[in-house]
């Protein structure tokens, strides 16, 4: 698995340090809001788990699965709801946890959905942000790292469902997907 990585961008240690900083900000901003933290499956699960243990707040956790990539390299442009939330977001503060914002289409879809359902506030915390990929005008409120326009894997990010369990974020060798 490690042999398929061209370069490590963010080591486990770098990720941890940045998450400590993000958690300090989020703890301050959500102290008395009792938010619902919404983790976007499957990519944001590792990030969500490592973040919530750092948050010193009362919060509920829920999961939603929306997909536009279907495990490949490029976005299909369409977003589909695969698995819905269990908790009603009406009149609640919600914080969406994402792995990466690229075109912004997934986020746009989610924010519209939660706004329709009457959420009191909607903010987004994304581990990674790829502004050069943007197709819709939307920005995450909290960002771990701003990344170049490369295909990244690890720490939740997959290629065809694999590499999510790498403890770091790296660039996948093009030779891995050129043969597919
Ligand atoms: P968007 O809707 O913003 O284009 O894409 C969001 C989703 O696309 C992410 O949650 C992630 O699943 C996938 N994605 C975007 N860029 C990358 C990338 O560099 N690597 C991987 N593995 N997935 C990505
Ligand atoms: Mg994916
Ligand atoms: Mg995602």
TrEMBL record:
Pathway listed: Purine metabolism; GMP biosynthesis via salvage pathway; GMP from guanine: step 1/1; Purine metabolism; IMP biosynthesis via salvage pathway; IMP from hypoxanthine: step 1/1
InterPro entries: HGPRT, Hxn_phspho_trans, PRTase-like, PRTase_dom
Entry GO CC: cytosol
Ranges where the Phosphoribosyltransferase domain occurs: 16-160
Molecular functions per Gene Ontology: guanine phosphoribosyltransferase activity; hypoxanthine phosphoribosyltransferase activity; magnesium ion binding; nucleotide binding
UniProt keywords, alphabetically: Cytoplasm, Glycosyltransferase, Magnesium, Metal-binding, Nucleotide-binding, Purine salvage, Transferase
Function as written in the Swiss-Prot or TrEMBL entry: Purine salvage pathway enzyme that catalyzes the transfer of the ribosyl-5-phosphate group from 5-phospho-alpha-D-ribose 1-diphosphate (PRPP) to the N9 position of the 6-oxopurines hypoxanthine and guanine to form the corresponding ribonucleotides IMP (inosine 5'-monophosphate) and GMP (guanosine 5'-monophosphate), with the release of PPi.
Family statement: Belongs to the purine/pyrimidine phosphoribosyltransferase family.
Entry protein name: Hypoxanthine phosphoribosyltransferase
């Amino acid at each position: 698995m490690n042999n398929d990585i061209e370069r490590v961008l963010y080591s486990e240690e770098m990720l941890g340090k940045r998450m400590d900083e993000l958690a300090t900000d989020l703890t301050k901003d959500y102290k008395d809001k009792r938010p619902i933290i919404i983790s976007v499956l499957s990519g944001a699960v590792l990030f969500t788990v490592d973040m919530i243990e750092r948050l010193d707040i009362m919060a509920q956790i829920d999961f939603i699965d929306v997909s536009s990539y279907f495990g490949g390299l490029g976005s299909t442009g369409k977003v589909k709801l695969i698995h819905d939330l269990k908790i009603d977001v009406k009149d609640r503060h919600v914080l969406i946890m994402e792995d990466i914002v690229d075109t912004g289409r997934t986020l746009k879809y989610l924010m519209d959905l939660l706004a329709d359902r009457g959420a009191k506030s909607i903010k987004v915390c994304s581990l990674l942000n790829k502004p050069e990929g943007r197709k819709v005008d939307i920005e995450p409120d909290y960002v771990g790292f701003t990344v170049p326009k490369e295909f990244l894997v690890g720490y939740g990010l997959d290629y065809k469902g694999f590499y999510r369990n790498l403890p770091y974020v790296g660039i996948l060798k093009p030779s891995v997907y050129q043969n597919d």
